[in-house]
Amino acid sequence: MMKLVEVAIKKLNEKSGFKVELLNITQLSEYRKEGHSSIYRKHWDPLTKEQLANPSSYADCIHWCLPGVPDIWNHFLYAHLLYL
User: What residue spans of 17-68 are helical by DSSP H?
Assistant: First the structure.
């Protein structure tokens, strides 16, 4: 898949005159435990007292545990923009 993306970016750079870059955060994100929704999933039914006592059984840490995966993406983007 990444080869296709790299080829598309190369063609876009050649044709458009703009510099397009890819910041691949997929592999990095896979190393973070809270980045997997199967571990911290959201239930649509009201929470029981047992679930409330143990947030790791129901919490949605992809969005609510800070600092989280999106915060790391923002750090990389910020560092990349400063480098330009």
Answer: 26-30, 49-53, 61-64
